[in-house]
Amino acid sequence: MRAALITQPRTLELQEVPAPTPGPGQVRVRVGATGVCGTDVHLFDGHFHARLPLIPGHEIAGVIDQVGAGVRELEEGQLVALDPVIACGQCWACRRGQRQHCLRFEALGVTQAGGFAQYVLAPAANAYPVRHLSVAEAAFAEPLGCVAWGILRLRPEPGSNALLFGAGPIGLLLMQALLISGVTEVTVVDPVAERLALAKSLGASHTVQTGPSMAQALRDLEPHGFDIVAEATGIPSVVEDMPRYAAVGGKLLIFGVAPEEATVRISPYDIFQRDLSLIGSFSLNATIPLALNWLESGRIRVEPLISHRMPLEELHKALEYKEHPGMGNALKVLITPEG
Ligand SMILES: [Zn+2]
Ligand SMILES: [Zn+2]
């Protein structure tokens, strides 16, 4: 089969490799679409302790074409979305219901062969049958599963208002999820005008472009601050500024992936005195079913977020787009190995 491999940091090669055969309890999926994500760029750079060579790609949807021994509930021909997180189920973290922190953490496209290939193997338990969705929509189950975990972490109060920094693909998913999880109004901030227009069309009540007049514009909108301030940028300076936009009792959600070594200055007194909550959210935790409910009900729209569908041969270009937000007007890029 054809597969894209990171052979060493910053080197991507398209190779012909043997197609895998499913072992007991595994299924083989003919990949229909795999989303390109910031994590793929980190792996390409050799971060996340990547064991190379690696076939990346963890936002995977496709059709089961072989089932291994002992697989129940699934059959050949079924369209499935894959949960990439492979947890041992036995360690301290798994026993506490924190699969994404499994002490023997493995993940498709991160530590094991992923979806930038014609075929991928997955444990049957990680394959979720999909109804009424295209394979492209189903590829959003994983990023939306991360958003779902963020919402469960955040627990928005009914009727609250939110400020969201970042209108990339993840930001636009998070915005829509907030709006069907009790939040009444979301104000979205981003430097790219086209992304703000899209945010508006997907339900943002207000949009503000990053720039010198941003802080004043946000104060004019909510003089007492926002109940929720979330970011999907991974930019440390954005995180540093979040408390100043929060109302008393406000919740701050750090959703973007900042550089590992980055630090920010935040006033502990401010957090204390204004009853603020600072919340992180990592990966996804058995939240694919929730994400699929959102997708299958049509309450979250993902088609407008797809800017490109590319063959495996163009993965390098997709990674370049990801490294330079706004380049090629890219939002979500899907790799479609079958063309
Ligand atoms: Zn991802
Ligand atoms: Zn575990």
TrEMBL record:
Keyword Zinc on entry: yes
Cross-referenced SUPFAM superfamilies: GroES-like, NAD(P)-binding Rossmann-fold domains
Pfam families reported for this sequence: ADH_N (PF08240), ADH_zinc_N (PF00107)
Obligatory cofactor(s): Zn(2+)
Alcohol dehydrogenase-like C-terminal domain: residues covered: 169-296
GO MF terms, alphabetically ordered: oxidoreductase activity; zinc ion binding
InterPro entries: ADH-like_C, ADH-like_N, ADH_Zn_CS, GroES-like_sf, NAD(P)-bd_dom_sf, Zn_alcohol_dh
Domain Alcohol dehydrogenase-like N-terminal as annotated: residue spans: 23-130
Key words, A-Z: Metal-binding, Oxidoreductase, Zinc
The family this protein is said to belong to: Belongs to the zinc-containing alcohol dehydrogenase family.
Record's protein name: Alcohol dehydrogenase
Protein's organism: Meiothermus ruber
Lineage of origin: Bacteria, Thermotogati, Deinococcota, Deinococci, Thermales
